[in-house]
Amino acid sequence: MLKTHNCGELRPAQAGEEVTLAGWVNRRRDHGGLVFLDLRDRSGLVQVVANPKTAPEAHATAQQVRSEYVVQVKGLVRSRPEGLENPDIPTGEIEVVAQELVVLNPAKTPPFYIYDDSPVDEAVRLRYRYLDLRRPRMQRNMMLRHRVVTAIRSFLDARGFIEIETPILFKTTPEGARDYLVPSRLHPGEFYALPQSPQQLKQLLMVAGYERYFQIARCFRDEDQRGDRQPEFTQLDLEMSFVEREDVMTLTEELMIHLVEDVADRTLLQNPFPRLTYQEAMSKYGTDRPDLRFGMTLIDVSDLVAGCGFRVFRDTVAGGGVVKGIRVPSCAAYSRRETDELIAMARGEGAGGLAWLSVGQDGAIRSSFAKFLADEDITALVGRMAGEAGDLLLFVADKASVTNRTLGALRLVLGERLGLRGGEALACCWVIDFPLFEWDEERQRWDPSHHQFTSPRVEDLPLLDTDPGAARGQQYDLVCNGAAPAGGSIRIHRRDVQEKIFDLIGLDRDVAQERFGHLLRAFEYGTPPHGGIAPGIDRLVMLLAGEPNIREVIAFPKTQQAADLMAGAPSPVEPEQLEELHIRIVEET
After folding, report:
1. End-to-end alpha-carbon separation of the chain, Å?
2. What is the DSSP string of 395-410?
3. pTM higher than 0.85 for the full model?
4. Fewer Cβ neighbours under 10 Å: the N or C end of the chain?
5. Residue 17: which residues within 8 A CB-CB, separation 6 or more?
6. Is residue 374 part of a domain?
7. Are 220 and 194 contacting, i.e. CB atoms less than 8 angstroms apart?
8. What is the DSSP letter of 154?
9. pLDDT class for 117, splitting at 50, 70, 90?
10. The predicted structure's pLDDT at residue 176
11. How far is Cα 196 from Cα 178, in angstroms, rounded to an integer?
12. Crossing angle of helices 495-504/509-522, nearest 10°?
């Protein structure tokens, strides 16, 4: 080894010891006589002192080094003089007096500062990702990710799970997003697909009798990118036999609590996690991914305004729609410009408009619609909304889906503005009882709301023949701070039920057999009831680290355009490679 100790582990107990350190020069300070180097490695940094009187060669070398030079230092650990300690770093009570200093590798001036987390354009960070990964923030994130994955493996191993790897080269079975395809050299004109998830394979492992499986799985989806998406990502894939929905949810909740409180040292606002049905979540929060860190829930006032003098409210209720509102605290003094901005947001979500009512500190009412209501109607409306002095009340009148979506979006925007969505705490919940299907008006067919392998609730099986839209799936989503880091379901384990689902979603029997014949055949050989869940490791670590997007917790991510700026991928390939794979590039005309 080129070093005997790590930089960040030295303490007063090592005073008097000779040590050899190696790392990067974080910063150099020349005081005209003594030269001070902050030497950094993954464990932290320590101050090195080069004295021209006691080690002239080491001092001469120290004068030449610059930030990010890789050096080796041999020297003596000593306590810092009284009053010169640095309480901001763990090694702040000691320093290393250099006896020898060797430059292992010089460095060009980096394109941004390494030793602090000052803002840098993301494109520059990604182009020089190997330098970005040296920065303190990124090293914290990578180490947190390591601890999370290690803790997951230990947690599941202690509960009887075994880790099994599944293929990366598999059969293309389109399941929503586009597959990444890999041409076969040995089978011209045929392709493998990179797995969007190991969904079918983990179900086959349940058929095979392994009962408790997990995998830290790499998954690939060719879809438009967002802050919480990447073309390749990692998930904890987990499947269990002979379980019901609550069994999977309880195990996942225990794992989540362990990761939040013991690994990431964060706090949970609710423990145990609340359970919300899909209908409850949509009705109260306007989304199936509710942020429970703050209130501001959607309140139905349809019954109060059904016969009021405000035609927009009255006609909406008469036409089968709903009128709902949210109470925004301390915003009664919003200006005309600010309320107009909210109205524009509402229209952007598809609503016809936004009605508002403010309660002044003196109790005075200002409103866009109050002149159409009797005093007792206004009093009842403010009472239903639990309005107080200083509150702004916002209302949307439309069909339920539009009203919920619009107020849900406004709730999040206003929660952000009011500082209600920050802090270190996580608010987690379960959302259950999703509709099994969504109606695709364009294709005139049912689409699975989760995926086509999700089992209906047992009591809803007859609805597959009479009213598929009313059937509920045995699906469950884990939601944290308005994001969904995990989703799962109890799976279909009977061939007849699986074929019924394929029929309902318009999948021809021959096509279903060609795509999923291996799974359907397996269901004929004694398949146990089973279910699982797939927390996204990237999203999970993003939440635990308090980062705004998953690129901050992935070592080498792609851009929003799915490009690798560091390596220059994707890139053209040699014509010989294409010829060998029997592929011809067709230029766009």
Report:
1. 59
2. EEEE-HHHHHHHHHHH
3. yes
4. C
5. 76, 77
6. yes
7. yes
8. H
9. confident
10. 66
11. 9
12. 160
* Pairwise CA distance, residues 113 & 119, whole Å: 10
State yes or no: pLDDT of 589 exceeds 80: no
Are 411 and 285 in contact by the 8 Å Cβ rule? The answer is yes
Indicate the pairing of strand 94-105 with strand 44-50.
parallel
Q: Which residues pair with 212 in a beta bridge?
A: 240
User: What is the total residue count of the chain?
Assistant: 589
What is the average pLDDT across 507-511? 91
Question: Collapsing DSSP states into helix, strand and coil, what is residue 253?
Answer: helix
Asked if residue 277 belongs to a domain, the reply is no
- Name, in order, each residue with C-beta under 8 angstroms of 258's C-beta and a sequence gap of 6 or more: 151, 155
Average pLDDT over every residue of 196-208: 96
Domain with 98, as residue range(s), is 7-105
The structural domain count of the chain equals 2
Q: Which two tokens stand for residue 493?
A: 């384990």
Report pLDDT for 174. 67
Tell me, yes or no, whether 560 lies in a domain. Answer: no
- Asked whether 426 and 346 are in contact (CB, 8 A), the reply is no
Q: Which of 16, 142, 68 shows the shortest CA–CA distance to 556?
A: 142
Query: What is the predicted pLDDT for the residue at 175?
Result: 61
How large is the C-alpha radius of gyration of the chain? 30
Residue 442: is it exposed, middle or buried by C-beta count within 10 angstroms (0-12/13-18/19+)?
Answer: exposed
Distance CA 487, CA 485 (A): 7
As a whole number, mean pLDDT of residues 58-69 equals 97
CATH label of the domain that carries residue 330: 3.30.1360.30
Of 70, 90, 105, which marks where a domain is finished? 105
Question: Which residue, 364, 382, 417, sits at the end of a domain?
Answer: 417
Q: Which two tokens stand for residue 321?
A: 């729609």
Q: How many CB atoms lie within 10 A of CB 252?
A: 21
Tens of pLDDT, residue by residue over 237-272, are: 999 999 999 999 999 999 999 999 999 999 999 999
Q: Are 15 and 43 in contact (CB under 8 A)?
A: no
Quickly count: other Cβ atoms within 10 Å of residue 11's Cβ: 12
152-177 pLDDT tens trace: 999 999 999 999 999 999 998 766 68
Average per-residue pLDDT for the chain: 95
CATH at 75: 2.40.50.140
- Tell me, yes or no, whether 315 lies in a domain: yes
